[in-house]
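3.2 Worked example (two chains)
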Amino acid sequence: MPAPRPVSSSVSLLALAPVLPVVVLHDAADAVPLARALVAGGLPAIEVTLRTPAALDGVRAIAGEVPDAVVGVGTVIRPEQVAASVDAGARFLVSPGWTDALLAAMAASGVPYLPGVSTTSEVVALLERGVREMKFFPAQAAGGTAYLKSLAGPLPQARFCPTGGIGPDTAPDYLSLPNVGCVGGSWMVPSDAVAGRDWGRVERLARAAAGLSAGGTCR
């Protein structure tokens, strides 16, 4: 099976799909069927979070066996995790926040990355460093759509993937904003469906999520 093509660091992660699934893997054996269900549902970009010991093994399995998936690693909080993630096959990186050391490691990785922000000062600091695409986290707790709408006027060059507390009912409100390219969420990978290996349910939820856009209409 041919290796998946790398995602260029110049490619916008925000344009891959309207929704970026945020996946927590407790068993690496679930990684491949879960990824196949998400891809079949129309969500090729998949963020596997570094919250469990199974995460990198799962990323490695997806990278090797699901070539249509664009698998990335989230919850990257230390520079050394960057190299480990890329070595496992991560094609993009996502962090909940950033430091200069972490940002430098992600920038040097050769893959696209979304550093996390929750304040205007953090956004300005990233713009100063040439970063224009960011994760807004935790979205709902940090001010939600009202906060992002307020940023669009003075900082129109910044674009976001809001994540945290977003579901299918609120996602269209975020997607309607001019500075939002996609949203992150886990509602299409509910823990009971993953635990029960109900991949058909995951595919159905992914298909519904892939059809979301501003105003709740299908793209």
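3.2.1 Second chain
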Amino acid sequence: MSQVTLDKSTDAPADAGGSGRFWAPRRIPAGIVAVLVLAGAGLLLYDIVAVRAHRPAMRWRRTLARQLAERPLDNTWVLAGAALAVALGLWLLALALTPGHRSLLPMRRPHPDVRAGLKRDAAAQVLRDRAMDVSGVRSVRVRMRRRKAAVRAVSHFRELDDVRADLDTTLTEAIHGLGLTHAPRLALRVTRAARKG
């Protein structure tokens, strides 16, 4: 399983120092919206053509027109339908305006035609492996985010201050060695292992 994503890109400037966020194509939501809009538009167009051909309008359209004419605007069903439409619209706007691919951390660009991204799980595994190499560390948990790497380490011998200092140095070097466009801030917490018995 590949942990680094590469993308050939020709629209980047020659002096690009880092990759921007990776944008998700979001084919499934776009496909669902396209199918629903096409089906609704086709059904409405068919009904309008039928009315123009002196045939009665479909029952659903007559019922909908009557309901909209008779129900006041403060009716519960009207407000619920409006709230649903607003929520769907905001969701579609959020999908259109946000990059997605939150699991990929953009990396620096060694060449303007190549974009690379490192998966968060892989970055967390690298930091965990480097932290486990520090003397006195018994276990490590790493949560990698875009702006912060939260590391919780448990030490079973050595002074906590010494372990914390070594971990801080090692993990800072490891974060810079990942080659990320924006190096996340290190949030380090070191605790003593619970004594048995």
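3.3 Remarks
Residues 103 and 120 are 5 Å apart (CA to CA).
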